[in-house]
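Rather than argue in generalities, we have chosen a single entry, letters for residues, whole numbers for local backbone shapes, without further comment.
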Amino acid sequence: MSIERIDPLYTAVATAENGRDGRVASDDGQLDVVVNPPKSMGGNGAGTNPEQLFAAGYSACFQGAMGVVARQEKLDISGSTVTAKVSIGKLSAGGFGIAVELVASVPALDEAATKDLLEKAHQVCPYSNATRGNIEVSLSAA
């Protein structure tokens, strides 16, 4: 399998200090957050965590991909939402991994049309393309 190179349209830059128990900031000052493991993982839950940040990015990106597909197919997705549920856990081979559940609500479409839109958006979304074959990603209509 070869890796396809991209022609960058934008590059985000963020720096972490002290890993999962510290701080993450972007180079442009737009993001500056305290990170801390959730209580269920031994942290104090005082800050956000990498899974929440990944969920935020994936849900926003996937919503954008739905918009691309909707414009191409002339679908009304006004009022739609995408919720990303990101889980972290131990891998049987050792180490840790994540899994993602994407749940979309599209009021103007029925369940079948929403599921079709989700499948097509999953082929367009950069997060989906980056994680394909690496993590479990499930799609469902709310």
The mean pLDDT is 96. The CA atoms of residues 6 and 13 lie 17 Å apart. The beta strands are 14-17, 22-26, 32-35, 81-90, 96-105, 136-141.
